[in-house]
Amino acid sequence: MSKSTLVKPGGRVRLTDHDPDENGGLSKEAPEVEERLEAARARMTELQGRLYAESKQSLLIVLQAMDAGGKDGTIRHVMRGVNPQGCSVTSFKAPTADELAHDFLWRIHRHTPAQGLIAVFNRSHYEDVLIVRVRKLVPKRVWSRRYAQINAFERLLTESGTRILKLFLHISAEEQKARLEARLADPRKCWKFNPEDLKEREAWDDYVTAYEEALSRCSTDEAPWHIIPANRKWYRNLVVAELVADTLEAMAPQWPAPACDLSGIVVK
Ligand code: ATP
Ligand code: MG
Predict the structure, then answer these.
(1) Closest atom of ligand 1 to CA, residue 131
(2) pTM to 2 decimal places
(3) Which ligand 1 atom sits closest to the C-alpha of 196?
(4) Ligand in closest contact with the CA of 108
(5) Strand, helix or coil at 150?
(6) Which residues line ligand 1 at a C-beta cut-off of 6 Å?
(7) Which option is the CATH number for 2-251: 1.10.10.10, 3.40.50.300, 3.40.366.10, 3.90.180.10?
(8) Model pLDDT for residues 80-130, shown as the tens digit of each residue
(9) Shortest CA distance to 128 belongs to which of 61, 64, 71?
């Protein structure tokens, strides 16, 4: 499954080539869906335990999406399998004055995961080549250098023992409309409605261009991007859970050997 979501390094992404309605030939009610999700969560639980105990490497999960793309829901459903003590979630909003007075990676770096931990970024340094580019918050000569700067930053992290899994939750413009309408209508969701989202929605095509360039230029061997079909929430959750579990498996964390010879020790 992970093969079809992977953005091949060096390739040129066109989002129209990726169907946000993809369901892997499954239906939401198929018992296999819940079984596979549970199996992936169970693998995550075991592997995170080992990652934490081993304390030699870490995992960074970067989540990006258009507004209402499902970042919060993905975190809620998929990360249920992990021990909160070994995991952090950071949501990156518009930078503060202090953050703007530094380089764009300054506020990011301090939230990267320490050895043994998993960190989830809800939005990330990619905003600095997305909204910043679309809204012309800095000149082109500034943002256009950032792709190489991001690749160098991510190489530093991977060479320091951090595995990076970057997930773009891909929804259609029609699905976004339906979700924004649902936010307006539902008292449990309307607190999330931000009139700014409508302004961003008007710039949908500019965001597509900006995403295509970020996904193309920053999918590297060390830190590849994945495009996750995300119109169907249940399928998105399944794909992401299996990708996270597969990634942890590939990292192969090991239970550490006991710190001393345990033979003959009796607990009285
Ligand atoms: P929700 O799904 O709950 O709406 P959200 O991630 O959209 O979550 P908001 O508080 O609505 O959270 O929006 C955060 C805003 O901050 C987004 O519009 C995002 O593009 C913006 N933002 C994040 N990073 C930057 C940045 N580096 N420069 C400018 N704006 C940024
Ligand atoms: Mg928002």
Answers:
(1) 20
(2) 0.96
(3) 18
(4) 1
(5) helix
(6) 67, 72, 91-95, 123, 127-128, 131-132, 137, 192, 194
(7) 3.40.50.300
(8) 989 999 999 999 999 999 999 999 999 999 999 999 999 999 999 999 999
(9) 64
